[in-house]
Design brief:
By secondary structure, this protein is of the alpha/beta class. It is built from 9 helices and 15 strands. Strand 9, helix 4 and strand 10 (180-183) form a beta-alpha-beta unit.
Length: 317
């Protein structure tokens, strides 16, 4: 099979390697594609702890495709099933996954790309946020995740204030139902605007979906007394400092919405399959850029640089 291998910072080679064989309780997937995640960008940049070359297909974890082979003891899946999976070497034409980490896709999703991991992540973050009718929600960072959360929160009856850097993202937030949009350009100006929009009360929920220090600082400032600050951004480029005086004074609940329990990952994935197959959410317009495997480096660079109109890259095989 063909698989991408990171050979150094900013360097990828696509090589022919042996096709993996499923072990007990595993399935082999013939992949249609894999989403590109911002969590790939630090390994792509080459931190000191990164080791090269990587395993074939490494870093890819947003895969969908068809069950191609069954390991011993797998009974709930069949060869030919179209699935989304939590697997971790999916920048390749084939990958292995535990049978319990594979979700069969219904016929309603035939032909549609389905990067299951981030879609399930969005559903898990939404559940953890405990968003209700009548609340005011600020979402900081309208990318793929922020856009889906804007739609989910709006449909739940919340008033969403979307805060993002790019005019393209703010336009998208309005299409997803945001009641208000604010450019993410001036710290004190944003605080003043949200204070004005909320009658000085600030927001019941603030979802930080960027993964940088400044948006995290801003999120605390926008959270009301006894509100909830939800950390959805992936903070991987170093330690963070927080304004604990402010968090203490306002009695803020801080929720780290990242999951590690595979069962919770699968719960989110099930909810995503249900929401998309029923038409409750439609992520198709959020997949803005598609690349073949041998242009994975371009996909990673676009994910890093975020050119105008970019939201989410898919690599297809």
């Amino acid at each position: 099979m063909r698989a991408a291998i990171l050979t150094g910072p900013g360097q990828i080679e696509v090589r022919q390697v042996a096709r993996p064989e499923p072990g007990p309780g595993q399935v082999r997937l013939r992949l249609e594609g894999c989403g590109v995640c911002a969590s790939n960008l630090t390994p792509w940049a080459g931190p000191e702890w990164m080791q090269y070359p990587t395993e074939p297909g490494a870093l890819g974890h947003e895969a969908w495709g068809f069950v191609d082979a069954l390991g011993e003891g797998v009974e709930n899946l069949s060869i030919g099933d179209r699935v989304a999976a939590l697997s971790y070497r999916s920048y390749a034409e084939y990958d292995l996954a535990d049978a319990g980490a594979v979700m069969r896709l219904p016929e309603a999703l035939a032909g549609q790309p389905f990067p299951g991991e981030p879609l399930g992540c969005a559903m898990n973050i939404f559940r953890r946020s405990e968003i209700e009718d009548g609340q005011t929600i600020a979402i900081i960072g309208i990318g793929f995740l922020g856009a889906i959360l804007t739609k989910l929160a709006t449909d739940a009856g919340a008033r969403v204030i979307a805060i993002s850097r790019r005019p393209f993202s703010l336009d998208l937030a309005r299409r997803m139902g945001a009641a208000e949009t604010i450019p993410m350009d001036d710290h004190n100006g944003i605080i003043g605007k949200v204070k004005e929009l909320t009658g000085g009360m600030f927001c019941d929920r603030v979802i930080e979906a960027v993964g940088k220090q400044w948006p995290l600082d801003l999120a605390g400032e926008l959270t009301r007394e006894r509100g909830k600050l939800i950390v959805a951004g992936y903070h991987q480029d170093g330690p963070r400092q927080v304004n604990m005086w402010l968090w203490n004074w306002r009695g803020i609940d801080v929720i780290n919405a990242h999951e590690r329990d595979p069962n919770i990952y699968m719960q989110g994935l099930r909810e995503a399959v249900g929401a998309i197959s029923s038409g409750r959410i439609d992520p198709s317009s959020l997949y803005t850029h598609t690349y073949p495997l041998d242009r994975l480096g371009e996909a990673l660079n676009a994910t890093r640089d975020r050119p105008d109109g970019f939201l989410k890259a898919l690599v297809t095989y």
